[in-house]
Protein: Glutamate receptor ionotropic, delta-1 isoform X1
Amino acid sequence: MTSVIANILVILTLHSFSSRNFIDAEAPARIENYFRITKNVLEYYSSSCIIILHNGFEEKSSVSLAHSLSRLFSESMFLTSTMSLLEENNNKIQKQWKACNTRPVQLVLLGSSESVTNFARHVRISNIDYPVWLILATEEARILVNGLRKNPDSNILGLTEVTEMLHLSFSERMVYEWHLQGNKTRADELASWKSDENLVFQVKQDIRLRRNSLYGKTLKVGGHQSQYGTMQLGTIDDFSAEIMYELSKAVKFNIQYVMENAEAYGSWDYRTKRWSGVMHMLTTKQIDVAGIVLRMTTERARDVDFAIPILSSVDRLYIKRPEEPLRWTESFQALSPGIWATIGMLVLTTPILLTIISLVKKEEVAGHLIIQDYLQVLGIYCQQGLTHFPKDFSSKLAYFSIFVSSLITYSAYSGTLVSNLAVSNDELPFSSLEEFAAQSTYRFIFQYEGAIRDMFVSSTDPVLRKLYLMSDKRENLPRNLEEAFTQVCNGNAGFYVESISLIKMKLSCKIASLNTGRPSSIGIALPKHSPYKELINRNLQKFRENGIIHRLITKYFVNDDSNESVRTETGFWSIALALVLFGSGMILSCVILLTEVIIFHWRTCGCCSRLSTEKSDDNHFTRSSFNQSRKSTSGLRITRREFFT
Structure:
């Protein structure tokens, strides 16, 4: 502040001022002229609120002019207030900003060199970039103010690249717009006027287009051992660095990385009452912008400013995916019980109808026919064809209806079953944070010194408090995502983090997540009242509209619903029932086949034995008869021989 006053005194020595009274030169016509021009500025900025600042009651002329203008603006339905440039009024002025529905215009009346010094001191301690400043200087202060405008190397008023400070030069009938360009103060002609006429604005281009460059200015960008990998100087190797690189190209600034030794984003130390990590660098203004995206929380927003959110998501609890249980009924869950009952009724009743049709035609015996019809209907529902198609029209119509119903049923069943098997449906041992806090199987971890830790420390939620008490010791908490997911895969650990932090990294295990329902957002953080916030917001909005942010999100991050690390594939146990049925059918078929072969072989051997026995009996009977015939014949021969003898 001493240097500010010294610069003003140097300029004062270069000019001689007349001690002309401020209000003496102000005729009613001149006051009306001030009012008309100031009203034009209010309309140009679409503002309905004006704050008139003067040097205090020591300058009675300035106070008199301030009240005269205040009365005119109040009559014109503008929200008007009048205050002095005293330091103790700074908080009152900022409260008045909050009372305005639109961006306020602050009309500064400078009537002496002392008022210029007080004004310089005032803008240094206030948020210079929020209101629109309109400087109105009299003859004594006019020379000094013109000297500030024509001296681009001195930035006594602390202007920034986005400051909107206007200077009414009545000697030139011109309105100049002051702002910082690079390292020099620049004054551009914004509007002019003629006597008793309104302002004619010479610049048609929007201020967002006129001031979209930092002209090669170097910004200090803070970083640390990044969550997404090691951030190295001059390289683009993570999401945050690429965002910063795209901003540097769009806004035209150079990046000077300032690395923090601590591997932490920053958390609040309740003992020392200060931030750590990158948050400490922001609050102490060691850097101009954080080079890593930070979680946006209420505690952090009190001490730093955030640009518009880059990503929004929810917090999740990640664990190692449990072994998939055997679900025997999953194949039957593809259709509702009502549909299964309908299919069963069709299978039971349709063969009876076909049998009745065949009996009416007097084709075959009923017992053999109904078994054949049941096998054919079951075959149709199993997507098999018929060995022969019936000739009569009634049977053709019945079989056509069966084929159509089986086709529709099979299509619906196949689609639903494939969807159920393919869609990820992780079965966790708990369904909420309350259930997780009640179990004792899993450890609880979160990232070392971050916004999530602050949330658990300061929370009054009994569930969050219980989770914090069951968490690992501070020195055992993971420092980055790689360490965290290593602990998840190596043991029973539950890792609490925002789901947008799940980047495309190789994991040593398959993980599952529980949606906690707590929203979270990340964005770029800047020091409080940073002059670069508006520039960054405008360009981030352009990146969002042009698809640059979407491209980077697709490149680095994994979608919650379709990420490769969480996606499940159809495993053996998912189709175990079908495989068991298939295997059981094959085994049963083999058993039946073997039984049929044995029975056939036994029957064949039995028939052969019986035939051989019958043949041997026949041979024995033939031989006995032959022997008896021979004996009778020989007897006859002996008798005959004896007779002739």
